[in-house]
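Team,

Forwarding the record for the chain on the shared tracking sheet. I've put the sequence and predicted structure together so nobody has to dig through attachments.
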Amino acid sequence: MKKYELAVVLSTKLEEEERAAAIEKVKGYITRFNGNVTEVNESGKKKLAYEIQKMREAFYYFIQFETEDANCPNEVEARIRLMEQVIRYLCVKQEA
C-alpha cells in the first residue's frame, strides 16, 4: 500500500460544523476512490504566509491515507479543487 498525506486549508469564515462537514466530505472522496483514511490531524487556525482571498488566517488539516490505486490521489484532488470551502490543498506521497 502506498501512503499519502493530504494537507487541506479551510477558510476561517466557516463555522465548526461546516469545517467538520468539509473534512468528512474529503474523507468520503478518499474512501470512494479505494483509499483508507488512517489519521486526521487538525492543526487549528494559523497565520498564512501571504494573503489569500483577503484572508490572513486559515484552518489547517492533515489527512493521512493509504491506497493501492495510483489514481486515487488524482481523483481526490480533482474533487477537492471544486470545493468552495477549501482555499488550498496539497497531496504528497510519503516515503516508506
